[in-house]
Amino acid sequence: MTASLFIPCLVDLFFPETGIATVKVLERLGVRVIYPSEQTCCGQPAFNTGYRREATRLAVRFVRIFRDAEYIVAPSGSCVSMVKMFPELDIPASLHEDAAHVSSHIYELSEFLVNVLKTEDVGAAFPHTVTYHESCHLRRELGVIDEPRRLLKHVRGLSLVEMENADLCCGFGGTFAVKFPLLSTAMGEQKVRSITAANVEYVTAGDSGCLLQIGGLLSRHGIRTQPIHIAEILSSD
Amino acid sequence: MSVDLIDIQKNIREALRDLPLRTAVWKATEHSLKKREGVVGEVANWEELRTLAHQIRKFTIDHLAQYLQEFERSATANGMKVHWAQDANESVSIVRTILQQHNAKHIVKSKSMTTEEIHLNALLEKDGYSVVETDLGEYIVQLAGEMPSHITAPALHKSREAIAELLTKKFHEPVPSDPALIASIVRRRLRDLFLSADAGISGVNFAVAETGTLCIVENEGNARFTITLPHVHIAIMGIDKVIPRMADLALFLKLLPRSATGQRMTSYVSLISSPRQTNDPDGPEEIHIIILDNGRSSLLSDSSLRQVLYCIRCGACLNTCPVYRQIGGHAYGWVYQGPIGGMLAPVMLGFNTTPLHPYLSSLCGACAEICPVKIDIHHVLLYERSLVVAQRRTSRIERIILKVWAWLMSGRWRYAFSTRIAQLLSTIFGKGAKVYLPVWGQTRDFPPAAKKTFHQLYRKVRETSGQ
Amino acid sequence: MKSREEILHRVSMNQSLRAEHAGLPDRDEIRRLLTWEVDQSVLIERFADELQSVGGAVIRTTEKNIADALVSYLRSVGAKCVLLSEDMLQTWVDLRQRLLAPSGGRRGTVEFLYSDDSRSPRDPISDGARDQRSADTGITACEALIAETGSVLIKSSDIQPRLTSLLPERHVVIARSNQLIGTLWEAFALIKKAEGGLPAAYTLVTGVSQTADIEKVLVKGVHGPRELCVILLEG
């Protein structure tokens, strides 16, 4: 089985260790990983801000790069959601089939591990207290709710603590975070209150955008809880 | 009706500074969500109900002309008078005419978002009519000279102390801050007004086409008074309020109370089919129904926006919206708030007046999850953003930044170049583990760009995993 | 009328967008989702539970004992002035004999007013006080009792003013156990079936008047009655 890796721009530039962890987890489970290095961005920032023409351009590029992939795996619920919306964009007719293929064969990491590889124990060890934040796209666009928790429960030594309002939006929302910075912050602080109450060493999630927001607030407020992407927990040993 | 540009950013700043408001809104919405969870959890086929409700609303809105005419026929045959108003001004003008015909001066009103939408009270009061809101929450905000801050809980933003203080000032009698005592004082005052009112004006929750019946849903009993005591009852409804059959009403009455107030059923549901019949001892002698468009029909022309008309005004989307829960209703600047307000604003008030409303959302999707008629709310907001852009209502700077960004992302070497620039800037403006970013950096830390991006690292990764 | 034509034109114009006409869901589909097998033997218990959960009370008795049950209830809640219609007395003859003088009047400390004879609040002030306003209790019949929600379905008619169940602080319903139905769906079926056309008003009463408009604190008896009691006649 071969998986083509899609690395979101946030991960590429700010959290490459998340990408490395993703490769490690997949290879440990016997998946051959390909990384098409011409990849750039799925176009979500443009799409979410209403710039469909620009988003379509990037979508077309993505489809061309990944058209032959058996599976596409990305450590990001929001990017995968974006790709799944490609058929709604004004993509040239000649690429419709490829767009359909790409959007139906792309998976977020935890979704891929549990639902495609049928694995819940990836052989990881992470002896720490952890709470899980549900990224909105992962939960509501992709319907991935149980899978990350099941994976975390099998990590040796990991103690999973549920926070209150785990599914409450962290306030990132992409460009929303800079369009309405104080509002975004207020929403994030609500989340941070829940995380603080959980009293854990780490908060994890499947989206780097969320972790950027949550981490930025935890750090600014001097709270000891560290943000970490779920891929990195799953690749630990 | 022309509206000034709503200054959303200013409203948000003010709302965020108002800690008592934020506490009140958070607590009230939390309470509503918990109550709803209880009564929805016990309905095993809730999801099937939602799906069926969506299908019925879809069919109705897709055949709206037919059902509006059927309703008009049935209601008229029952002895009610039906009027049509294209916009707010026309609807108020019709109300005035009816009031003049009956020499009516003192009017009582039950809660109706539609009447707020057309600014009915203000316009009638200018002409010398006295109009009193009789729903407790609406009565309070009317006295305070404010707009309601939530679809089903208009005074949600006010503490009991604030309410007691307001009423003490207005009544010239000491009003304690105990909710039960406040209610009994208001009950006494409004009872007198009900009994002497010349006309009653209400909204409509559902208008059944099959039988020509108005359905009005409430908990206090003030709507029953409003539509029973005065000689004239005027009911104002948007064109989207019509439903095909009584059978459909049974379904919507299962969904609405549970979604809106976490009740299995509201205290009173009135089904009004005619004025007082020949030997009836009470009831209004005349019932006038005003069917209002006011921009709703323009939602029909866009197949993606049509579903906004499915809304049954339960307010659940407000309760679950993480944005609404932080800023409350007033920040949206008009009568419809939260996710439903975000969708309606640009269409009914104009994209030029409310270009930011569709952006006032992190697109979390909690609204779509909770909507009893399955409106795909956050995707509608997303679609409206593309309309804002297509109409060139975004700032020039933003357009330029987006275009440049897209250009940089659309080529491998351009992308690589821009990441190198980002890394450089990060080194210059960074301090150890943090980088100061404008806007973001006001309240949040930001990590530096990685010394090597994943792109740059990939070959190394290949080597370490031995391939 | 110009506006009517304008609106209908705008609405019709925008309907030709869609080609598909997946039909309006059948009534049976709705019925399937809103009804279930109701155990008749526990219908009364279910109704009583639901009514109590929304702040109402149930008194179970038999037709023979209706007068005693009613009087003892009225005494226990301290009712002073009770509003009801002549027709109620025709229906339960015993009531007339046990309770009332020919044109209303007193029974012990309870005064009974007939809605047919007394002055309705909207009538012009003639002689004496506004009679119906002084009632603290209103007694009505009903069309149905709905177990699913603990609701009472009442309708307007020539013999039962709408205000009887709205003006006084206390609303008492006299119902027979064979008026009990399981679900709201059946209530709507009943409404549809009603012969002679629809009455001016049906009111579905579920509990008492209430509001949570002030800090979400539940307060009862805001405008409508603050007490509701159903006297259920069995056997």
Describe the structure.
The complex is a heterotrimer of chains A (237), B (467) and C (235). Chain A has 237 residues and is α/β, with parallel strands linked by helices. Chain A has 2 domains: 2-116, Rossmann fold (3-Layer(aba) Sandwich), CATH 3.40.50; 129-235, Rossmann fold, CATH 3.40.50. Chain A contains 13 helices and 8 strands. Chain B is α/β, with parallel strands linked by helices and 467 residues long. Among the domains of chain B are: 45-297, NagB/RpiA/CoA transferase-like (Rossmann fold, 3-Layer(aba) Sandwich); 400-464, no CATH class. Chain B has 21 helices and 12 strands. Chain B has helices spanning 8-17, 19-41, 46-62, 64-77, 88-101, 113-117, 120-126, 136-144, 160-171, 179-196, 222-228, 246-261, 296-300, 316-320, 324-327, 338-349, 366-370, 377-390, 396-409, 412-429, 454-464, and strands spanning 81-85, 106-109, 130-133, 199-202, 206-208, 213-218, 232-238, 242-243, 268-272, 286-292, 430-431, 434-435. In chain B, strand 5 and strand 6 (213-218) form a beta hairpin. The radius of gyration of chain B is 26 Å and the shape is globular. Chain C is of the alpha/beta class and 235 residues long. Chain C has helices spanning 2-13, 27-34, 43-53, 66-76, 86-91, 93-99, 184-193; strands at residues 57-62, 81-84, 105-107, 110-114, 137-140, 144-146, 151-155, 170-176, 180-181, 201-205, 210-211, 219-220, 227-234. In chain C, helix 4 (66-76) crosses helix 6 (93-99). The longest helix of chain C has 12 residues, at 2-13. The model of chain C is unreliable at 125-130 (pLDDT under 50). Chains in contact: A-B, B-C. The interface between B and C is large, with 100 and 78 residues. Strand 9 of chain B pairs antiparallel with strand 10 (201-205) of chain C.
